[in-house]
Recover the amino acids of this structure.
């Protein structure tokens, strides 16, 4: 090959971006899936054995290729090329998925394809084409539009948890606690615990004067325009407060603020104008600074569940536009979000610092953790699937003999608690905020 031919052959040619509103940006990724099923199986380096060797809830539950990422990639590719139309089954397959990121982590161990973004783009396309989202999702969207919260509860009751916490938020502070719909209405124990933890750490915090839903479910099911409107409204509201830190106690809300808001607004996480932290990141800092001491014993054999949105889905977002050429090489260089740099160490270090806690790891952990099944619209549209996923995860809890299961997200807590109660399992399910508070107050 001549030098001139080589330059022409290797030079990047196709322009693309990571914009999920255009499915064409991900045709390359969808068409290059080789069906190796690295998205389904735990990587052999970490595979704990035959019993817990899968990480994709959809592929594990439905046992048919269409439900795995490899099947969804073929469906998406065919739709992007105009050779397949939507039908009832295709819509079900696209939404019977927790968007947990396990497939994306698996693929980036091998091919560096953008599987998670392809799945998000498929849902955006479903909405644009007038077939999505699912009926249960439309009801949630109506709730948010009417009362600014997921549950359609009275907006005026959003701060009812404050009085019972015994803590008075400041009018002005560097830390702004974004409570979220779950902790405001159905899991008030998390909001109360968070407030008391901040008080114990000597941290003044404020609340938004008029907090609205973060829009996690809207974005997750493809309602892009509605989610973007909330992102614009909420980010501007926080910027007006002058807060330096936005603190969440919900993993789903954390991912939404740190990753998906920047994605929706076309900016990098670093350009938000404030730092987004989960409670565990803040508490870990305070323990190391000596501002917080966890000295009350908590005698239990405990296992920690990595909530997807705090772990493999939580790496910062940076917009990208470039060109792709031979063998998929891109220009300029694209730093991939591989899921390995999520929030993994901090919650474990916190729990290990509590006297009496015996922390035991489940076989699938960190970026290979098995999703609880409840998040990103799955629990509402496919409750049986969500229940099955939680039960599957609880098999690991039983396997390691844990008495207490802890996570960092109300969706995880609620779904696990439901199965524990219905199946009569001898497992205590707690949010990490409750565990931290118990270690502070006894």
């Amino acid at each position: 090959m001549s030098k001139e031919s080589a330059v022409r052959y290797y030079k990047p040619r196709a322009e693309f971006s990571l914009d999920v509103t255009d499915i064409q940006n991900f045709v390359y990724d969808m068409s290059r899936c080789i069906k190796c099923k690295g998205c389904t199986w735990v990587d052999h380096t970490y595979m704990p054995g035959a019993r817990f060797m899968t990480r994709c809830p959809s592929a594990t539950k439905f046992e048919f290729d269409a439900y795995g990422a490899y099947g969804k990639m073929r469906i998406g590719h065919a739709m992007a090329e105009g050779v397949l139309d939507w039908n009832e089954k295709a819509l079900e397959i696209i939404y019977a998925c927790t968007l947990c990121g396990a497939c994306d982590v698996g693929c980036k161990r091998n091919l560096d394809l953008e599987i998670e973004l392809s799945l998000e783009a498929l849902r955006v396309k479903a909405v644009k084409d007038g077939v999505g989202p699912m009926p249960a999702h439309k009801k949630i969207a109506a709730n948010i539009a009417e009362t600014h919260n997921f549950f359609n509860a009275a907006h005026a009751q959003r701060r009812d948890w404050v009085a019972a916490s015994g803590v008075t938020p400041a009018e002005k502070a560097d830390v702004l606690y974004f409570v979220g719909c779950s902790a405001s209405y159905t899991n008030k124990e998390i909001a109360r615990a968070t407030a008391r933890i901040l008080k114990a750490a000597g941290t003044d915090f404020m609340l938004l004067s008029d907090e609205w839903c973060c829009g996690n479910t809207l974005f997750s099911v493809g309602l892009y325009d509605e989610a973007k409107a909330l992102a614009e409204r909420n980010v501007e509201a926080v910027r007006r407060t002058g807060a330096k830190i936005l603190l969440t106690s919900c993993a789903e809300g954390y991912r939404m603020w740190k990753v998906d808001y920047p994605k929706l607004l076309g900016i990098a996480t670093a350009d938000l104008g404030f730092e987004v932290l989960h409670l565990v990141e803040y508490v870990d800092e305070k323990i190391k600074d000596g501002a917080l001491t966890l000295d009350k014993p908590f005698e239990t054999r405990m296992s920690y569940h990595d909530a997807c949105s705090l772990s493999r889905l939580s790496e910062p977002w940076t917009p990208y536009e470039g060109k792709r050429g031979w063998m998929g090489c891109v220009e300029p260089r694209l730093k991939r979000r591989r899921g390995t740099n999520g929030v993994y160490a901090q919650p474990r270090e916190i729990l290990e610092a509590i006297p009496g806690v015996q922390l035991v790891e489940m076989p699938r952990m960190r970026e290979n953790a098995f999703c609880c099944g409840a998040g990103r619209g799955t629990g509402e549209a496919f409750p049986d699937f969500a229940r099955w996923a939680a039960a599957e995860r609880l098999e690991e809890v039983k396997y390691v003999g844990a008495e207490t299961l802890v996570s960092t997200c109300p969706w995880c807590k609620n779904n696990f608690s439901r199965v524990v109660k219905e199946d009569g399992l001898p497992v205590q399910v707690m949010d990490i905020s409750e565990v931290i508070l118990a270690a502070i107050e006894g």
Q: What stands out?
A: The radius of gyration is 22 Å. Confidence is low (pLDDT under 50) at residues 5-10. Residues 293-306+344-442 form a domain with the Rossmann fold fold (CATH 3.40.50.1860). The chain has three domains: 1-132, 142-289, 293-306+344-442.
